[in-house]
Amino acid sequence: MRALCWTSGGELAVGQVPDPELRNDHDVIVRVRRSATCGADLPLLTGRASGLAAGDVLGHEFLGDVVEVGGGVRRHRVGDRVVVCASVACGACWYCRRGLPSCCDNGSTDPTANEAEWGHPVAGCFGQPRAAGGFAGSHAEYVRVPYADVGAFPVPESVCDDRALFASDAAPAGWLGAEGGEVRPGDVVAVWGAGAVGQLAARAAWLLGAERVVVVDRHPARLLMARQHVGAETIDRRDTDVAAQLREFSGGRGPDVCVEAVGGPAGEHLSLADRFTGRAPVPETVREAVYACRKGGNVFVLNGGARHVDAFPTGAVVHKGLTVRGGRQHGQRHIPMLLDRMARDELRTEHLATHHFPLDRAAEGYALFRDRPEECLRAVFTPH
Ligand SMILES: [Zn+2]
Ligand SMILES: [Zn+2]
To answer: Considering the entire predicted model, what is its pTM?
Structure first.
């Protein structure tokens, strides 16, 4: 089959790779309808440092049709249209049973790499290096989905492909930012980043009852989208004192909840290699969120781009009594609820699919996504 992969010549190109096969009873094979770029892929485009090997297929946000079903699969049949959680979890370990599937002990087939990095193994992910489990990605005609009863979900008929696609990663990530930040009715919520995850964190904050939602970004076109499609107020961080403006939005106190959702290239002062391989200064947006948050408030960090950061403002966390949390999306827990909301029209996401490309032009799609973040929120590939 055709797939976007890393070549032995050190570049990204669509080439032929072996068709995926069922490897165990709980797998299904999905024929991909849509597969999207994500900021988490950008470090992989740097080549050598990325950890990808020749033939590794990229892509982790996708939906498609089930074409083969393992003998142990209970919830899926050939022909089902399913959206698949970008993150791979077993559904049965101590963490999965407690509703923390992205902390899964069994989701990665090679847990040692991130155990060394973070102290514990975490869930796998499609289309990422071996450290994330080595699961072939979705920028391909077909993809093998392990633990299919746990990570694949039937899409309601009324929800179109371009909307359901975002239930794979960006919508559960945004939801986690708002839920994990414990947004309560009447809260003022600030979200850093008007990309797909930031806009969906803002939307989740509305749905959880926030009174005001403010999105902070440096790209006017994205901020316009956040106003038009999410109904958020916006701050252009290029030309203002963000913390001062946020105090004005919140009775002089600062937001109750600050969600940092700046992924990909918007951590502008970090080189991509720094973001992926080593130490880096704390992203300016994280520092800004900690600084702006009201005393006793919650900061939720969704941006895992920099592995280790220096100059984290510990003093502000202590003296202001902040709660700082982070997380990768728990789609296995949230996707059914998000699909319901999509079917009820409470959650609209199709505007985030700003550009479509046939799979054969995927490298071009990534170049646009990387170089024109102000206009390309997601490049969406259609393999068939
Ligand atoms: Zn993603
Ligand atoms: Zn698990």
So the answer is: 0.94
pLDDT digits (tens, 9 = 90+) for 137-154: 999 999 999 999 999 999
CA 138 / ligand 1 centre spacing (Å): 11
Considering every ligand atom, which ligand is closest to the CA of 173?
1
Residue 13 has pLDDT above 60, yes or no: yes
More confident residue, 57 or 109: 57
Residue type at 332 in one-letter notation: Q
Neighbouring-strand partners of residue 2: 16
Instruction: Tell me which ligand sits closest to the C-alpha of residue 196.
Output: 1
Other residues' Cβ atoms within 10 Å of the Cβ of residue 345: 10
> Mean pLDDT across the chain, nearest whole number?
91
Q: What is the pLDDT of residues 299-320, one digit of tens each?
A: 999 987 656 677 788 999 999 9
Long-range residue pairs from 308-317, CB within 8 A, at least 24 positions apart, any chain: 308/278, 308/279, 308/280, 309/279, 309/280, 309/281, 309/282, 309/283, 310/279, 310/280, 310/281, 310/282, 311/281, 311/282, 311/287, 312/282, 312/286, 312/287, 313/282, 313/287, 316/290, 316/291, 317/290
Distance 330 CA to ligand 2 centre (A): 11
Ligand 1 centroid, distance to 78 Cα (angstroms) = 26
- The alpha carbon of 312 and the centre of ligand 1 are apart by a number of angstroms equal to 25
Distance from Cα 375 to the centre of ligand 1, integer Å: 18
Residues 206-244 pLDDT 10s: 999 999 999 999 999 999 999 999 999 999 999 899 999
Ligand 2 centre distance from Cα of residue 258 (Å) = 29
Residue 66 pLDDT exceeds 70: yes
Q: Provide the residues around ligand 1 (an ion) whose CB is within 5 A.
A: 38, 40, 61, 169
Nearest ligand by distance to the CA of 102 = 2
Residue count of the chain:
384
